[in-house]
Structures are given as C-alpha cells and as structure tokens.
C-alpha cells in the first residue's frame, strides 16, 4: 500500500514536470497575414511592437518623431538651453514622460499631429517613455 502511494505521487510529480517543460519548449507559431492585424494586448495598439533597430547612437537634433510606436531618433544629443520638440505622427495617442520620479518631462496625452516642447537647462542624460505604451523608450543627452 505504501509503495503504491509513493509510486502514485512520483507519477503525478513527473507528469507536472513534463507539463512545465513542455510549456517552455513550445515553438512560436509563424505570423500569418491576419495575425498582424490583431491587437497585442497593449491599449491602443494593433500588431506587434516594432522591432528594435539597435541604433542607440546619439543624434544631434532638436526634433523627435513619434511614429510606428517608437521615438526616432532613440537618443538625441543637444546643448544646454536647447528646446526639443516631439511630434506625434502616429494614429494612436502617446506621452513623453521622464522615467523614475522627479524628471522634467511630463507631456499631456498627445493625439495625432500634437507636439510637446521642453527646454533643457541642465546637462545630463534624461531617459523617457510613453506611459501609454511603456515599451517605447528613448533618451535625451544634454551637454554643457
């Protein structure tokens, strides 16, 4: 009797381990033409989030475009006293908000073609995101 209980528990534990292992090894399904039109679970977003280009080299400009659920360029370098302008060229609303607490960037929700401007008065690196789509991140590097 005792051996059958031990065997039964071992079989149940083994089945659980097999089920858990199978979850982590499922091959992703190839995207179909119709799957790109389905929502991804992010509010206000259709399709998959854009793939990162990996291009984080700072760009000297004072304009940032918000398009295809990304800030472009991803890193901007400006001098102290420069006003940076963000323009929402997406059909969905976005924000420009400093990461962490106390940062200077706090745009209202920007609709299509809205702009937000901020003048940087101190040097440093200012990381920001869209609070509606938090996977959208970028930085402004301010030099003396």
From TrEMBL:
Its main location: periplasm. Residues 64-142 form the Blue (type 1) copper domain. Binds 1 copper ion per subunit. Residues 30-58, 86-108 are annotated as: Disordered. One of its GO terms (molecular function) is electron transfer activity. Keywords: Copper, Electron transport, Metal-binding, Periplasm, Signal, Transport. This is Amicyanin. It comes from Actinocrispum wychmicini. The lineage of its organism: Bacteria, Bacillati, Actinomycetota, Actinomycetes, Pseudonocardiales.
């Amino acid at each position: 009797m005792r051996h059958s209980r031990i065997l039964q528990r071992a079989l149940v534990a083994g089945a659980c381990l097999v089920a858990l292992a199978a979850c982590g090894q499922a091959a992703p399904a190839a995207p179909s033409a119709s799957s790109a039109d389905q929502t991804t679970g992010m509010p206000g977003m259709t399709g998959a989030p854009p793939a990162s280009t990996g291009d984080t080299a700072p760009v000297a400009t004072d304009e940032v475009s918000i398009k295809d659920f990304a800030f472009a360029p991803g890193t901007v370098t400006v001098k102290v006293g420069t006003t940076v302008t963000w323009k929402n060229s997406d059909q969905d609303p976005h924000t420009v908000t400093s990461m962490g607490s106390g940062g200077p960037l706090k745009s209202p929700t920007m609709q299509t073609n809205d702009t937000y401007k901020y003048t940087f008065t101190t040097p440093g690196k200012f990381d920001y995101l869209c609070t509606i789509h938090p996977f959208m991140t970028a930085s402004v590097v301010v030099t003396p």
